[in-house]
Amino acid sequence: MIDFLVAPFDRPYMTRALVEALLLGALCGAVGVYVLLRRLAFLTDAVTHTVFPGVVVGFLVSGRSGIVPGALVCAVAAVALFTAIAATRRVNEDTTLAVLLTAFFAVGVILISRQRSYTADLTAFLFGHILTIDTADIVVTAVVAVLAVLVLLGLGKELLLRAFDPEWARAAGYRITALDLVSNMLIALVVVASVQAVGTVLVIAMLVVPAAAARLLSERLGVIVAVAVLVGMAGAWLGLATSYEASVGHDVRLAAGATIVLVLVAFYALVTLGQASRRLVRR
Amino acid sequence: MSRPAAIVFDQASVAYGRVPALEQVHGTVHQGEIVALVGPNGAGKSTLIKALLGLVPVASGSISVLGRPPALARRQVAYVPQADTLDPDFPVSVAQVVLMGRYRRIGWLRPPGRADRDAAAEALAAVGLAHRAADRFGTLSGGQRQRVLLARAIAAQPAALLLDEPFNGVDAVSQEALLATIRALAAGGAAVVVSTHDLGLAQLTCDGICLLNRHQFGFGPPGEVLTPDLLRAAYGGAALELGDRGLIVARS
Which residues is B60 bridged to in the sheet? Predict the structure, then answer.
């Protein structure tokens, strides 16, 4: 068992993948708790889709090194737009998000479909390529992780208040739109940092699943954050090891990013089942 | 009554955009006074509280809170929303909710300190729920949650306290605890404005009544405002007269 968890990571490319996956697991776990509390899963999903054309344009302009800047520009623009629209409270937020995310996504698909290596590129952008991650990607993720820690520690109490009782926060004189802009930007940065490793589609699972599982396991916010971080990291490690073992040991090709997500979902399902059976026993 | 004025309404009208919600409110709440906002559903009671918080603009006339426009007085004003507007599944403890009352004093980027925790614990004890501090907020009964929200407001040590329908769906024990705490706060010099459907409770416990339905029908001591004529005028068809001893008001 220990061999299964350790042996694959002898190879440098697997070590890099592991470092990136652990960083992302922790980062997404922590930020995911806020996404859960604010019920921002749909907004996050919208950001992941709107980032897509940015990824494509960045790649077309300057290859792999253009992906993160491209994604960043799109994410920041999209989040500023969403926050502004939400602040007016005139239009139905869900509808706006749905229209914007599909529009952005379609633009991305059209851009990439003009390329010769269409399918291969599309797959990499949608599902990531964690096994070919380089040091620069890891640095980007680490910087975002440091930023996330600073924001969550520095504004933790204000974000908690805003999530729990926005009207009261407004009555106490807090600028909700400014707080929302900060937290939405943080979510956007997490999405951007995750694009290389797990792609635009699977980030949402990294953010939502560990936090949701942690919420089932505890009622205490501090514990929920800690558990979400641990679950995110454990899922990333186990997923990578599983995908390696299946691919190398058994000749069954399992995409690394998707395997991480499935491990997380399996854990969530186990927790849900455990809770349901406990409730049955208590009756 | 020589106590200084805390809240002054001067022919104030409040509007959502161009739609007037409440017109011609005129009166004064002094320090240490409890004033009830009464009137039928949709009378504008909540709107007036939002105006006092600076969340809804004053369209004409003026509202002054502690000598300033409402939006500039927020740090000295504490608000108690209806408990059932909050998500009962939210993973936050009772102690954490009360501590929120200290956030403005603590300021940005700092964690709560010892003094803040002590003040929060004291406020929670004042509403009789010190033993529930570690429980999740949503596990408490409606009345208890309302008391926790009052404790959060007290923890802010406000000069003015605004409560939106705090007695709705609240059990007798919690109602008594809420009333005792509100009275103690007023005795300490705070000005209290509380909206309520309960005319009996308003008559028994408040120093003043502001009778509203889209505009003001009366503002003054209970004996002068809660009269059959004024109530009939404010409640219209929802007023039901019984016998000749007075008047019972039925909710629409």
Answer: B13
Quote the tokens at residue B185: 């706060």
ipTM: 0.92
φ, ψ of residue A115 to 5 degrees: the values are -85, 155
* Token digits of residue A16: 């890099």
Distance CA A94, CA A85 (A): 11
Per residue in A63-113, pLDDT (tens digit) is 888 888 998 999 898 888 888 877 776 667 778 778 888 888 898 888 888
Residue from B22, B59, B19 nearest B43 by CA: B22
Q: CB-hemisphere CA count at 13 Å for B215? A: 6
A168 and B81 in contact by Cβ < 8 A?
Answer: yes
CB contacts of B79 in chain A (<8 Å) are 168, 171-172
The predicted-structure confidence for B16-60, as pLDDT tens digits, reads as follows 877 888 999 999 999 999 999 999 888 999 999 999 999 999 999
Residues contacting residue A198 through CB under 8 Å, at least 6 positions apart: A24, A127, A128, A130, A206, A257, A260, A261
Chain B positions touching A160 (Cβ under 8 A) are 92, 96, 100
Query: What does the alpha-carbon distance between residue B245 and residue B242 come to, in Å, rounded to a whole number?
Result: 7
